[in-house]
UniProtKB/TrEMBL annotation:
It comes from Sphingomonas jatrophae. One of its GO terms (molecular function) is oxidoreductase activity, acting on the CH-CH group of donors, NAD or NADP as acceptor. Residues 15-333 form the Enoyl reductase (ER) domain. Keywords: Oxidoreductase. SMART domains: PKS_ER. Gene3D superfamilies: Medium-chain alcohol dehydrogenases, catalytic domain, NAD(P)-binding Rossmann-like Domain. This is Enoyl reductase (ER) domain-containing protein.
Amino acid sequence: MPTNRRFLLIRRPHGTPVPEDFQLETSETPALEEGQFLLRNHYVSLDPAMRGWMDDRPSYLPPISLGDPVRASTIGRIAESRNPDFPVGAWASGLNGIEEYSLGQGGGFTRLVDETAVPKITNYLSSIGAIGLTAYFALLEVGQPKAGETVLVSGAAGAVGSLVGQIAKLKGCRTIGIAGGAEKCARLISDYGYDAAIDYRGKSGDDLAQAIREAAPNGVDVHFENVGGEILDAALLALNPRGRVVLCGLISQYNTAPKPTYNVWQLIVQGARMEGFILTHYVHRFGEAVPQLAEWVRAGKLRMDEHIDEGIENALPAFLRLFEGTNQGKMILKIAE
Ligand SMILES: NC(=O)c1ccc[n+]([C@@H]2O[C@H](COP(=O)([O-])OP(=O)(O)OC[C@H]3O[C@@H](n4cnc5c(N)ncnc54)[C@H](OP(=O)(O)O)[C@@H]3O)[C@@H](O)[C@H]2O)c1
């Protein structure tokens, strides 16, 4: 029986998580019963949402219990099995934890039967996983972009934001991305096809509103929000009549107390709509989106950058990259060869 290193939550973080909130524990993997299998996790998806699961408050998933591994999506190979549906050596994924081995009892795990659907196995955590699916459904179903419209995206150089910009272009829209720093803004245009880029760092709310007005002289039809705070307030000021605001994430507030949004009156005067998005509401439709996303990836129409750090002992610094903005694409932790 192999030993299992697991990254446990032992204290609820106040603000930005610190090492004392976690413990790397080593334990034995259990002897398998009939129907069970052991997944050797190779890659762990690090997502901003994990910060919310660390808090003790109602959400779309229960809080992580203290003493449990930090909940995360993983992919890996079946290492031991007493379940014919999950044979040794097969790739599988699931919402598991940051741990070297996850115990499978059948439910909650998916066999990754077609390894050739996408260029890299990690794409199951990025372009055709939760990231691609979020960009696809949140933009197309909630944002309802039409050819010729202007789409503004915050967190535009990140995993979700980079795909949103590219899908909006595929739908014939003009795209404007907001990101932190000159280098990321250059990549918005060179790598993700954005028509214009705005560097939010060092800008006041008024500066941001002015920059958006300059980049979108005809106004914004769809605003895709990943960040919140001053960026959302500035974007609201640029909305066109019947504009749509997709509330996908508010990462600027995940480690702080919520801040007010002042310009919601714009929704009234523009007859506009702001709607929250949560991917779990679209599970029944994943089957229609995955083939389309995979086709775009294979055809080179959708670029997905992945930022892969290594080692389960580096789980916290790798996770914190999401809040520091030092990730260049989908944040993934590799914990096995
Ligand atoms: N609703 C859903 O179902 C769903 C599903 C998946 C993801 N999401 C949301 O989508 C958003 C993006 O997630 P992701 O996985 O793609 O992460 P990501 O964009 O790859 O990484 C997070 C990025 O957010 C930016 N950021 C962090 N703190 C910031 C702050 N205080 N102000 C401005 N920007 C900040 C950083 O980019 P800069 O360097 O540009 O600052 C950072 O690189 C998150 O809000 C997440 O919660 C929602």
